[in-house]
Amino acid sequence: MEKEFFETDVVIIGAGPVGLFAVFELGLLDMKCHVIDILDKPGGQCAELYPEKPIYDIPGMPSVLGMELVDSLMKQIEPFNPSFHLSSMVQEIKKIDDVFWEVKTDNNEVFKAKAVVIAGGGGSFLPKKPPIKEIENFENNSVFYSIKNKERFRDKDLVIVGGGDSALDWALNLESIAKRVTLVHRRDQFRAAPDSVKKIFSLIEDNKIDFVIGQVSSLNGKDGILESLKCKTSDEEVEVKCDALLPFFGLTMKLGPIANWGLNLNENLITVDTEKFETNEKGIFAIGDINTYPGKLKLILCGFHEAALMSQQAYKYVYPGEKLTFQYTTSSSDLKKKLGVS
Asked: Roughly what angle, to the nearest 10 degrees, separates helices 17-28 and 66-76?
């Protein structure tokens, strides 16, 4: 495969919500971006893991689905026409002179940029799989680690395994459309938001969902299609009718090649300052869940704030010596023109 070469102002690694908003903030300051992501579509975890899960802490949006947020961010950055390079993993970053960084991917793409922004969440993420024999034979047919279209589970007998926010949130969301939901957890205590726990216990008491204290021990079915499963409890093994199994045990984050880029790391997170969100390498920034600093909160809204401050410093590398005048989108005719606002 021949190499493809690109030159741009900024390369953004990660097309999740924070990476997408970085395109917007950089675009307001006349910086062009190329965005690289290992997934086959923009949106990060919002698109891949919970596109139909409500998010309640985005400012000004009382409730927004993961995919709705991604769609809105994509609409917001349209005026800046970023270039996306999807299903690509960055393998190498190196300084090639006093001005430019070189970024290489596993798809033989080579980028030359004055600044690099790492917005890769926690790295490459994989679901934690339950230790059930031959579970891989049912994956993507009857076993799912994320939900991209909840209509797929309408009128189905569902078994949801886990005791955290994801398991309880989906039990609450799917109860109204599924034929029956059975929640399986190894104990009768949950590690989820108190309101969700209260609602789950209410549904259990009203016999609207079933609850089994135990662990899934085996799957029954053929050709990838589940018919039932067995749960081992403290004193017996029970069989549960099941069309689909949804195990929510969290994610395993793999830092991947980032670990070899010469950046200061703290427990697999990139250390940054809180003025510019710059790493120990001048011109390389880290925003969103991939970074760490005193008081860090892993919230999308915090990543948006980090993107704004990062852009102010990135400007100095892209346009060295030029004065940057701070402007508001509400009052600046220049910014409104860039956004196509009359």
From this structure: 20
